[in-house]
Amino acid sequence: MNNQQPTWLDKTAYSFTSHFLKVSQGELHYVDEGKGEPILFVHGTPTWSFLWRNQIKEFSTQYRCIAFDHLGFGLSTKPSDFSYSLDAHQQNLALLVEHLQLDNVTLVMHDFGGPIGLGWALQNPDKVARLVIMNTWMWPLTHVKSMMQGSKFFGSSVGKFLYTTLNFSPRFLLPLAFFHKEKLTKEIHQHYLLPFADKKERLGPWNFAKALAGETTYFEELLKLKQSLTEKPTLILWGTKDKLIPASFLEIWKQTLPTAHVIEMETGHFQQEENPEIVTRVIKEFFQDTMKTQEPVL
Fold first, then answer.
1. Contact at 8 Å (CB) between 55 and 280?
2. Average pLDDT over the chain, rounded to whole?
């Protein structure tokens, strides 16, 4: 099985061993660093496990950190015959959890990692210890006219051209989503562009763009099952200067998970890149606080 990393990868920034899990449509790339209680990092678009590198370095000294790349992203296979549906991505996540025999999992989710990670969590609440939610959603977007219109446009032939020929998502949308523009250096940006170097490798981001409008049923099912997660310790870590996700989503989260601890940051969509130190510190404090409350009384 292939375990080689590409030559363009900065091994200092991403100093992890690559592993691959064979699934029906290809190979799922993941890293598995450290020992202890498992933390499972779930990325969105157009990112990959590279997004979590700073958190993995810090947390792997105390915890077992697993971060994987969805099919069509990062170092995973980018098949042309994969459905790229949210449910198919969720099923791959389930296969990885089963393969690694994970239990008592803390899910850290961002962007499309939210509906994918929560899709698994809602079916396996007994395996979930905590949730960390970062600029994502778990409900239908039919009420957000701009997102629905954008999704339908990008699902058209013109949209497919933009995504597959011009590499629209990492080249244009990703920089737009940064509030602190200086944090997206040329070197970091390359690590989000180069996984999609070939036109044939860009179906993952395009299918996510279509999913906003096209997967309403999937989001409706998530919302129906939300009750099974309402008692889980939850941290909502929100970038308030996000140009991709409406600010109103934070209020919906507060209503959906009313006991969640909420921290707001002055960053854009990619908090992990714009302020990795604060992201790490806030999650670490959340871990410490929730572990205290979960300790048995002797």
1. yes
2. 95
pLDDT of residue 296: 47
The residue behind tokens 């994969």 is 82
Phi, psi of 131 (to 5 degrees): -130, 135
Instruction: Check if the beta carbon of residue 136 is closer than 8 Å to that of residue 115.
Output: yes
Residue/partner pairs of 122-126 with CB below 8 Å, 24 or more apart? 122/222, 122/225, 122/226, 122/228, 122/229, 123/94, 123/225, 124/94, 124/97, 125/228, 125/229, 125/232
pLDDT band at 297 (very low <50, low <70, confident <90, very high): very low
Mark out the alpha helices in 165-247 (DSSP H runs).
168, 174-176, 186-193, 203-214, 216-224
Helix, strand, coil fractions of the chain, as percent rounded to 5:
45, 15, 35
- Indicate which CATH number applies to the domain containing 261: 3.40.50.1820
The rounded distance, in Å, linking the Cα atoms of 150 and 153 is 5
Q: What is the 3-state secondary structure (H, E, C) of 177-191?
A: CCCCHHHCCHHHHHH
What is the number of structural domains in the chain?
A: 1
Question: Which DSSP string do the residues of 241-253 spell out, in sequence order?
Answer: T-SSS-THHHHHH
Per-residue pLDDT reduced to its tens digit, 204-234:
999 999 999 999 999 999 999 999 999 999 9
Do 121 and 108 contact (CB within 8 A), yes or no? no
What is the β-pairing status of strands 19-23 and 26-33? antiparallel
As given in the structure block, the two tokens for residue 279 are 């992201």
Domain-located, residue 180: no
pLDDT tens column, 228-280: 999 999 999 999 999 999 999 999 999 999 999 999 999 999 999 999 999 99
> Is 7 a member of any domain?
no
Cα–Cα dist 105/195, whole Å? 28
Q: Which amino acid is at 147?
A: M
Domain annotation covers residue 205? no
- The answer to whether the CB of 109 falls within 8 A of the CB of 121 is no
The pLDDT assigned to 3 comes to: 59
On whether residue 161 sits in a domain, the answer given is no
